[in-house]
Write a structure and sequence with these properties.
about 675 residues; 7-stranded mixed beta sheet
């Protein structure tokens, strides 16, 4: 529960400030109660930078859905010399109310549990030189104040700091959230009609696709124009959660509204069982199976209580990865979609605006039917030409990650994909582009609709009104302004790419923006080839894998000695397509292991994760952050590269006919 913060902030008598220093010994002594530091005696350079949310709450900690339980394992992922620096209860029992770090606090995944672990350990103020945007939003929603090191010095000197200094840089609605102590208390004030939302008075102007979607959904000022930075209260067309997140949503709703809570428009929302479905196949996850089972049970309770659409597993088989199924059956052009997973942005391939939110925001929006948004800036990619043979949308995305995301041009912006080149990309390939917007640290991504968009949706939803589908689509106004610029990419210039795993021990982080041409990567021998996940388990991805595997089989090859090649289909409909087209027989002949629908590799909870440091994986998934998919090294690549590498045993770009020419070693 959150309380309204006082108008003037002071440090509380008897409470402590924890400095996350680069020197682990100083942290150890603070946790042991032997040392209390002052900001005036330190510099920002003494403090840890880039604290990752996986470090704050590793996946296994998130199996505790109650924030007070996961707080006891706060910072369990901060490992020094193979040992946990924060033992169980170290933060929780330390009487700390302020936590201090260096630059970019809260990078990595969007998991809100990172904030919860601190808040339920008693932290009221987080101090850093900068915060990752989603982590900052999670702090705001949870009522944790954020400030800089100078303000901390004043607090430690005994000064009072006006609350206004903690929020005056924010947009008007975010200011309201901070002043009320978080999103839930604000929503209650709104329900009691104690406050009115700030009006949006933006004059008529040309708009981007994202701006048009938000303008259309704005409560109270529907169809007025909007511009980046505007604060809006918007209606949400739909959303979903999965078994890794639903239990928290239910918990927050019960805490805030009682066990008899009701949600608005249950039919527009859904639950999926897809993320932990194969966790028992990962040895490191087996000790947590009872907690995982509890998460499943709680999701079932939530679904029965609320009546949201049910995409639970049947006989242990998932209907599919939430993002894949959602674009097939739930998401339409012009929709505004919110769900509790960072790859929610994938829905943008259907000309919708979609992004992932934390459990707090999701619980609030399904209860009230609306959410708050600061209109994001946009960046536009004008695609021309066609991708060369052997090159896929994944290669294009790895190129965009390197050239545009790495220099932060996509940061917090909506990526718009337009231009004549779109027509040459299938809906599945468009979905690869929008899926990886989150790796670009973008807010989301949206693709211009065309007849292929409508045909693809109508084929899967025969009951849908085709006229309405077309009317709801959005396109950018010709004079729309793009803060991130308009960039023309000639698809014909794209070549097979990888993102390498960096060298985290020597300061080169594992990052999807570590792009390189496959031909520049020297003879990297692999142990695992993985094709699957929300990014690469679609029908076209399976066609790519099959294309390579069929050629290899024709050349008399099987998967290279010592390599495991796993292909996981994204949904039951993808699996059905593979069966009907004989793919399964080809995969079996080549020695490929095919796995039923589901995901989890990117959180270390499913097939395809490495088990030791020495293993090298080439994977068609979306992220290669160190440790998230096991302890080994992970290269990101296209489905074609993954499949070709599985037969050569080293990272290799696919070329048509390559196996007949090369005849690599076989078993
Ligand atoms: S890759 Fe799979 S596990 Fe990772 S965020 Fe996407 S859907 Fe979830």
């Amino acid at each position: 529960m959150s309380l309204k913060p006082p108008q003037t902030l002071h440090l509380s008598p008897g409470k402590r400030v924890l400095f996350l220093t680069k020197d682990p010994e100083l942290i150890r002594r603070q946790l042991a109660g032997e040392l209390d530091l002052k900001m005036k005696d330190l510099t920002v350079d003494d403090l840890l930078d880039d604290i990752n949310t996986d470090v704050m709450t590793p996946a296994w900690v998130c199996f505790n859905h109650r924030p007070e339980d996961l707080a006891r394992e706060a910072y369990a992922g901060l490992i020094v010399d193979g040992e946990r620096l924060f033992e169980r209860d170290a933060l929780y029992g330390g009487d700390f109310e302020v936590i201090v770090s260096g630059h970019r606090k809260g990078v990595g995944s969007s998991r809100e549990t990172a904030v919860q672990a601190e808040k339920w350990s008693g932290i009221k103020i987080a101090v850093a030189a900068s915060f990752a945007p989603i982590h900052a939003a999670n702090n705001i929603n949870q009522g944790v104040l954020m400030t800089d090191h100078e303000t901390l010095q004043r607090l430690q000197a005994g000064d009072g700091v006006p609350l206004e200094e903690f929020y005056r840089e924010y947009d008007p609605i975010t200011q309201l959230i901070v002043r009320h102590g978080g999103l839930f208390p604000l929503a209650k004030s709104v329900a009691r009609k104690e406050i009115e939302w700030p009006a949006n008075n933006t004059e008529s102007r040309p708009m981007t696709m994202a701006e048009k979607v938000l303008a259309r959904h704005a409560l109270g000022a529907r169809d007025r124009c909007v511009k980046p930075g505007d604060s809006l209260v918007v209606e949400v067309d739909g959303g979903y959660s999965h078994e890794f997140t639903t239990a928290q949503v239910q918990y927050f709703l019960e805490q805030e509204h009682g066990t008899d809570y009701r949600i608005e428009a249950a039919g527009r929302f859904a639950v999926f069982e897809d993320h932990l479905i194969y966790a028992d196949e990962v040895p490191r996850m087996r000790p947590f199976m009872d907690k995982i089972e509890r998460l499943r049970e709680l999701q079932v309770e939530f679904q029965r209580h609320t009546g949201v659409q049910d995409f639970s597993a049947k006989d242990g088989v998932s209907p599919g990865i939430c993002h894949e199924v959602a674009r097939e059956v739930l998401i339409s052009p012009g929709d505004f979609i919110q769900a509790t997973d960072s790859h929610t942005c994938m829905g943008g391939c259907n000309n919708a605006l979609a992004w992932g939110v934390g459990a707090t925001e999701y619980a609030n929006l399904i209860h009230s039917g609306f959410t708050t948004v600061e209109v994001p800036e946009s960046i536009r990619f004008e695609l021309v030409g066609r991708l060369p043979e052997g090159v896929t949308a994944k290669d294009l995305m790895l190129y965009i990650l390197l050239e545009f995301a790495r220099p932060q041009m996509t940061l917090n912006r909506v990526m718009e994909f337009t231009g004549p080149g779109i027509a040459s990309l299938s809906m599945d390939e468009r979905a690869t582009l929008t899926n990886m917007a989150t790796e670009c640290s973008a807010r989301g991504a949206i693709v211009e609709a065309d007849e292929e968009t409508y045909r693809w949706i109508e084929q899967r939803r025969p009951e849908i009104d085709g006229v309405e589908l077309r009317q709801r689509a959005v396109e950018a106004d010709p004079e729309a302004h793009y803060d991130g610029g308009v960039h023309t990419i000639d698809l014909a210039s794209i070549q097979p790419m990888v993102a390498h795993p960096g060298d985290p021990d020597h300061g080169v982080p594992s990052d999807p923006t570590n792009g390189a041409l496959v031909e520049e990567v020297d003879e990297v021998a692999i142990d695992i080839a993985y094709g699957g996940s929300c990014t690469a388990g679609k029908i076209d991805d399976l066609i790519f894998y099959h294309q390579v595997v069929a050629e290899a089989v024709e050349a008399g090859l099987t998967v290279a000695r010592g390599v495991v090649f796993l292909i996981q289909v994204g949904s039951k409909s993808v699996e059905k397509y593979c069966r009907e087209n004989g793919f399964m027989e080809t995969f079996a002949k080549a020695g490929v292991t095919v796995i039923q629908p589901g995901c989890g590799a990117c959180i270390g909870c499913g097939p395809g994760v490495s088990e030791n440091d020495d293993q090298v994986t080439v994977s068609a998934i979306n992220r290669n952050y160190k440790g998230r998919s096991g302890p080994g090294k992970l290269y990101l690549a296209s489905p074609l590269t993954v499949a070709a590498s599985a037969f050569t045993g080293r990272i290799t770009a696919y070329r048509p006919g390559m196996f007949l020419q090369e005849q690599p070693q076989t078993i």
